[in-house]
Amino acid sequence: MNPVLAELHEKARAVLDPVHYDFFAGGAGDEVVLAENEAAFRRLALLPRVLRGEENGPEFPVLISPTAFHKLAHPDGELATARAAGTVLVSSMASTVPIADVVAAATGPVWFQLYLQPDPEVTEELIRRAERAGCAALVVTVDSPVFGRHRRDLAHGFHDLPAGLAAENMRDLPGTPGLRRIEMAPFTWADIDRVRDLTSLPVWLKGVLHPDDAVLAVEHGVAGIFVSNHGGRQLDVVPAALDALPAVVDAVGGRIPVVLDGGVRSGADIALALALGASAAGIGRPVLWGLAADGEAGVRKVLDALRDEFEHVLALCGGQLSRDMVVVRC
Ligand SMILES: Cc1cc2nc3c(=O)[nH]c(=O)nc-3n(C[C@H](O)[C@H](O)[C@H](O)COP(=O)(O)O)c2cc1C
Ligand SMILES: CCCCC(=O)C(=O)O
Q1: Which of 102, 189, 259, 276 is buried deepest, with most CB atoms within 10 A?
Q2: Which pTM does this prediction carry?
Q3: What is residue 57's predicted lDDT score, i.e. its pLDDT?
């Protein structure tokens, strides 16, 4: 793990209310997948190429994956994250700052993460809010037909935000004055088609693991996919996100970009994801640790540390990353 990230994690653990720390840190079930997401990177190694001179590698290929409730981490919440981002920020529908304010504060493109809602008018209004705010894409999370069961939250009895904090995008939606709860429901590809018909924004899917679903995503005109197991917070029997990546990349065959998130904690992890065919890596918890430890400056430290380390790894790899360079450790 990058030492800056490790230090910020320790600081976050020390300053956060333990209930909120566990909400951020925890996973579903026995937390097997939570641990595997990081362990999968340790099982792989990179064979660097030599004598390549100064090849130009990819730009810093990291984006901020959507995480809920940033004001639980820091009073500035998503505003601090947005100010620090400087790269694509996928803003959670469950943000504690309204999406328009997130976009206004942002130093890079903002994409809106959406959980489709059972009432199509509510979904449409959320999409319109994202459009009006100036979001550059929609990211529909498809790995959550039901909520994951997070044992740490259940043990603490944590199921509501403290007084004064709310999922601000859920205010004054059609049919409900005031706050509306975010609902999970089992949707279909027809619902994705409807979203595409409703908006001219690129529509990404987040939470694809099966290669056949990746092919369906291409066929349904999706702009890109996130190979993700929701940071081990949904089904605790799936593979590590990294282990699911190559088959999805092969199925997609370069037709759309594939982002990998889950367990990315260092420049080497980013390099491994790219070598296995990801266009970019998403980071979830490290951003929360930076935010909790040091607000906007902490998020910036996380991104700067990863950028610096990734560039160093890339230089040591001869400026290029490809699948033939990845081997399994003995
Ligand atoms: C506290 C927390 C809240 C999250 N909230 C959301 C969310 O609102 N929407 C979503 O699509 N994914 C959510 N995720 C999943 C992340 O987008 C991402 O897939 C995951 O955190 C990546 O793994 P990492 O934390 O190991 O980097 C959340 C993850 C965490 C840890
Ligand atoms: C209603 C908020 C959902 C947040 C989420 O996706 C998670 O905690 O993993």
Answers
A1: 102
A2: 0.98
A3: 74
